[in-house]
Amino acid sequence: MMPDVSDHDLISLLARARVIAVVGLSPKPDRASFRVAEYLQRVGYRIIPVRPVGEEILGEPCYPSLEAIPKEIHVDIVDLFRRAEETPPLAEETVRIGADCLWLQSGIINDDSMAIARQGNVMAIQDRCLMVEHRRLADRLPGAAA
Q1: Between helices 130-137 and 7-16, what is the axis angle to 10°?
Q2: Across the strands, what pairs with 21?
Q3: Do residues 20 and 77 make contact, with C-beta atoms less than 8 angstroms apart?
Q4: In CATH, what number is assigned to the domain containing residue 95?
Q5: Among the residues of the chain, which ranges form H helices?
Q6: Arithmetic mean of pLDDT, 59-88
Q7: Contact status, residue 24 vs residue 49, Cβ threshold 8 Å
Q8: Using 50, 70 and 90 to split pLDDT, how confident is the model at 144?
Q9: Contact in structure between 84 and 24 (CB atoms under 8 Å)
Q10: Residue 1 falls inside a structural domain
C-alpha cells in the first residue's frame, strides 16, 4: 500500500486520465486483466492492450511493448499485470514514453519499480487494483451522478 498516494491524488489522476495501457492484458474473459480492462473501457477510458502476441482485445489493437504505441497517443496510466520481478524494465519504459502513472496491480510489489518511476517524475502505485480504486472513488470523480 502506498500511503503517500492520497485519495485526492487518485481522484486527480482518474479524472484527468483518458488512456490506460494494460500490460499483460489477456484476451480470456475469466482473467483479472480482462475484467479490469473491460470495466475501465466501460466507464470511459481508452484501453491500449500491450502483449507480445495477438491482434486485438476489447476492440483495440495490441502492441508488443509500451514503446510500440504510436507517439501521438499519450498514455496516462500504465497498468501492469506482470510478475513483480518483470516490472523494473517496464517502469523504465513507462518513464521513457512519458506516462503520468505506473500502476502495479493488487499483489504486485516491487520497490525498485516504484523508485524508477518516481525518479522519472511518474506517479507510482503498487499492490492496488485500478478497478477497485476507481469504483471506490467513482462518486467523487467530476461528472459523477449525484
Answers
A1: 100
A2: 48, 78
A3: yes
A4: 3.40.50.720
A5: 7-16, 32-42, 87-97, 111-119, 130-137
A6: 97
A7: no
A8: low
A9: no
A10: no
Residue with cell 478497478: 131
Amino acid at residue number 142: P
Q: Are 117 and 124 in contact (CB under 8 A)?
A: yes
Instruction: Quote the domain boundaries for residue 64.
Output: 7-110+122-139
Segment 4-24, tens digit of pLDDT = 789 999 999 999 999 999 999
Residue 18: strand pairing partners: none
Q: Which amino acid type is present at position 51?
A: R
Helices (H) and strands (E) in the chain, counts: 5, 7
**Cell 504510436, located at residue:** 70
For the chain, the average pLDDT equals 94
